[in-house]
Write a structure and sequence with these properties.
mainly beta; 1 helix; 2 domains
Length: 143
């Protein structure tokens, strides 16, 4: 089984991280969710594992017309079970840093005024037959 793990944590230099699993569930086919809590940092870590072989999973990326919509609002619009804010952006005009592309499942288009660069990683998801293939291209620059 292939899994894609998404992990977000907050940390400080002086704290010693010691996260503890608080809960876990399998809310939908192909999705495993865990909540980890670290009171020392403090941090709440939401870990999502996706079984990329699950036929029930469908992936969407925002189109340029969705610029400025919150992750929560986009998830509600799509009735998504999981939504991830994929990259940083400049608040003025919601201009993504690096390349932004999306517009449904098949017709993926690059957003205007965005471009690939050597400082940003790229997460690429595509369907290959009955499986989803995930690729992460690390940045070329030492950041």
């Amino acid at each position: 089984m292939r899994f894609l793990a998404v992990f977000l944590a907050l940390s400080t230099a002086s704290a010693v991280a010691a996260p503890q699993k608080d809960s876990e569930s399998d809310p939908h086919p192909g999705i495993h969710y865990e909540l980890w809590i670290d009171a020392a940092v403090p941090a709440r870590i939401h870990l999502v594992r996706l079984n990329l072989s699950a036929q029930e999973l469908v992936f969407y990326a925002t189109k340029e017309a969705d610029r400025g919509i919150t992750t929560k609002a986009y998830a509600a619009r799509r009735s998504a079970q999981v939504a991830i804010n994929g990259d940083g952006f400049a608040v003025a005009g919601y201009r993504p840093r690096g390349l932004a592309a999306g517009d449904g499942i098949i017709d993926v288009k690059a957003w205007s005024s965005t471009a690939d660069d050597t400082a940003s990683a790229v997460l690429h998801l595509r369907r290959d037959g009955e499986h989803t293939v995930a690729t992460i291209e690390p940045p070329q620059d030492d950041v």
